[in-house]
Write a structure and sequence with these properties.
about 0% strand, DUF6112, Integral membrane protein, mainly alpha
Length: about 100
């Protein structure tokens, strides 16, 4: 009989999930984030309108530099709108991916 016994290997699974009741002010923070997202989308629309006008003015006045700046502005405004609009979905997607690892 052996004097040294092997310890039982116990693997404890850690289960931590988001807790909306853990800190005070979470509901207010959600409201603030939603308001900031709204402001971001409104600014993206404004940037899209201004950039489209610059693009049109550059194309109409045969100014390729101005038209190029307008095109760049349109693409950046659209990218910003996509990121603002899809931010919650992207975070939830990567949260789900992270949970499967």
């Amino acid at each position: 009989m052996s004097l040294i016994s092997s310890p039982a290997t116990v693997v404890a699974g850690i289960t931590i999930t988001p807790n909306s009741n853990g800190l005070p002010g979470i509901d207010a923070l959600r409201t603030i984030v939603g308001a900031i997202m709204t402001v971001g989308l409104i600014l993206a629309v404004l940037a899209l309108i201004v950039s489209a006008i610059v693009w049109a003015m550059g194309a109409n006045s045969s100014n390729p530099h101005l038209a190029g700046r307008g095109k760049t502005g349109v693409l950046i405004a659209l990218g910003a709108a996509i990121i603002c609009g899809a931010s919650v979905t992207l975070v939830n997607f990567f949260w789900t991916v992270g949970q499967t690892i």
